[in-house]
Design brief:
The complex is a heterodimer of chains A (274) and B (267). Helices cover 76% and strands 3% of the residues of chain A. Chain A is an all-alpha fold and 274 residues long. Chain A is flat. Chain A is built from ten helices and two strands; from the N terminus they run αααααββααααα. Chain A starts with a helix and ends with a helix. Chain B has 267 residues and is an alpha/beta fold. Chain B has eleven helices and twelve strands. The longest helix of chain B has 15 residues. Chain B has one domain: Rossmann fold (3-Layer(aba) Sandwich). The chains are: A mainly alpha (274), B alpha/beta (267). Chains A and B meet through helix 1, helix 7, helix 8 and helix 9 of A and helix 3, helix 4, helix 5 and helix 6 of B.
């Protein structure tokens, strides 16, 4: 097998396995006994959504830094490993926003604090401040968002989104998508693995494209067959085109203590971050 | 006189050019435990889909409890809900049947469609999860379950409606020996009462446990019927319908020979 073809197949296989492991790890985190896991998912959304918005809009760097510290504290109290957050959130957000904010370092007018040798570009204090704002806002908002996702089973999170008036049909569609994406990933994984086990010799780029197209076609055909069968299974249990969702959410004393606390923090952050 | 659970008269069903059922006649009495035996592609699964009101025959007639089972009649919500509550199908592939994000949602799906009150659903789901020994899986997503667990969840998802007819399509397919044994125990316990149970299978080791009467299918027709003992002892019939095959192997002496074999998992 050529290095190129091996690369494509290997990469696809490791992506499939990675996605499955990722989902499994997230479900395990959601089952841990931590502060956020204890909250009713609806309360969690109502409590944390304002913090995300305030982190994204605050004009005071110290307020954003305090909100970031709060997010880290929540992660620790919810037994979410900081290493996981660093890999999945902080590094990704830093790379993305860091890349976007680099021009601000040089283009924002202000007091010069450094000059890049050879190029002669000047970094300004105001530029550094602007870049910091962008990075800190993104890091803080992303950390809060990921904490909500990691501390809540996906099915419950979708149902809880109905407090934001998300239509029930959308909740059901997203739930089924989440359910079957893994089955199709597994199917695709098996297809690639069986192909890999029988491949010898080199594949040119044309053959590689043909393999990819054929695999996509087979997967599409299986998906269509599956969707027809799933519809029959739904009909068999009384589905007539209308969707219903049931949740077991119960709001307890802990929720009623935490909700005002989060609201107060959000209020203070809003006031001092204006 | 009590009408039969199902009456199938001269039913033909085709998938485009392929005939799946060819002038089939069959009567299933209330409380009967029936096994539909046949090799792959003999028409068993198609018949189950017809009995569950998912497919409708191009020719012939099917009745449920004396009433015709037609697409038109099932358009009426009351009739369809009544039928869906009374007749349940467990699909061969549990991934088809487990379409909800969690086990809890899966078991609650049927009662939700039937508009049961929320408290009643929560209570019945808990009872069913306990009964099927899957309470610990309640919040799990189906893609994290083993095949045996998926089959149990699929069974729980239909038993919660307490149907009077249970249609099972290859209930032990792809199960390891322990899961197969557990599944048979569940099937025996849930079919030991007043339920009518129709099982499509080619696993002959299952038959004596879950059926009192068998119909043998070949090319969309019933070619034989009888008690499990009568059918299982008719080796020429089992051979001709591909339910057993001659298998060449060596015994202690090292001499090679061949004779008909049944393959199962129990010893």
């Amino acid at each position: 097998m050529s290095a190129k073809s091996r690369g494509m197949v290997e990469r696809s296989l490791s992506s499939f396995v990675g996605a499955l492991e990722h989902a499994f790890a997230a479900e395990e985190l959601a089952k841990k006994k931590g502060l956020l896991q204890k909250l009713d998912p609806r309360v969690k959304i109502v409590a944390i959504l304002p913090l995300i918005l305030i982190a994204a809009l605050a004009r005071e760097l110290r307020v954003i830094a305090l909100l970031f510290a709060l997010a880290v504290a929540l992660a620790l109290l919810s037994r979410v490993p900081l290493g996981t957050l660093a890999k999945r959130v902080w590094l990704a957000a830093l790379t993305f926003t860091g890349f976007i904010s680099v021009p601000a370092l040089f283009l924002t007018p202000g007091r010069a604090i450094y000059s890049v040798p050879v190029l002669g570009w000047t970094v300004t204090a105001q530029g550094v401040r602007t870049a910091l704002y962008l990075v800190m806002r993104a890091e803080t908002a992303a950390t809060f968002s990921v904490l909500v996702v990691l501390s809540t089973p996906w099915g419950n999170l979708l149902k809880a989104l109905r407090v934001l008036q998300l239509p029930t049909v959308l909740v059901v569609i997203l739930g089924m998508t989440y359910r079957y994406i893994f089955l199709l990933l597994r199917t695709a994984h098996d297809m690639f693995e069986s192909r890999k086990s029988r491949m010898v010799g080199k594949l040119g780029s044309r053959e590689l494209r043909r393999v990819a197209t054929a695999s996509a076609g087979v997967l599409m055909s299986k998906t269509l067959q599956l969707s027809g069968d799933v519809y029959l299974a739904m009909r068999s249990r009384g589905f007539r085109g209308e969707v219903y969702v049931l949740d077991e959410f119960r709001t307890g004393w802990f929720d009623w203590v935490m909700l005002p606390l989060f609201t107060a923090i959000a209020g203070l952050a809003f006031w001092f971050g204006r | 006189m009590t009408p039969p659970a199902f009456e199938v008269r001269d039913v033909t069903y085709r998938y485009h050019e392929v005939t799946a059922l060819d002038g089939l006649n069959l009567t299933i009495l209330p409380g009967q435990r029936i096994a539909l035996l046949g090799a792959n592609g003999s028409g068993k699964s198609t018949l189950l889909s017809i009995l569950d009101g998912l497919y409708f025959p191009q020719k012939g007639e099917v009745t449920f409890r004396g009433e015709p089972l037609t697409e038109n009649r099932l358009q009426t919500q009351e009739i369809e809900f009544d039928f869906r509550r009374r007749v349940a199908l467990v699909f061969q592939n549990p991934d088809v049947q487990l379409f909800n994000p969690t086990v809890f949602d899966e078991v609650a799906f049927g009662p939700l469609q039937m508009r049961w009150p929320k408290d009643q659903i929560l209570l019945r789901v808990s009872e069913m999860l306990e009964q099927m020994e899957i309470m610990h899986l309640k919040d799990r997503s189906p893609h994290h379950l083993s095949t045996g667990e998926k089959k149990r969840v699929a069974l729980a998802s239909v038993l919660i409606l307490d149907p009077e007819v249970l249609l099972l399509d290859e209930p032990t397919a792809a199960l390891d020996p322990k899961s197969e044994s557990q599944m048979i125990d569940f099937l025996v316990s849930c079919s030991g009462g007043r339920k009518t149970v129709v099982t499509a299978t080619h696993d002959l080791d299952l038959v004596e446990d879950i059926a009192d009467y068998c119909h043998v299918f070949q090319l969309g027709r019933i070619v034989a019927a009888g008690t499990p003992a009568e059918i299982l002892n008719d080796h020429p019939l089992l051979l001709s319908t591909n339910l057993i095959h001659a298998h060449r192997h060596a015994h202690g002496s090292g001499e090679l020979h061949s004779h008909p074999h049944r393959h199962g998992h129990k010893h």
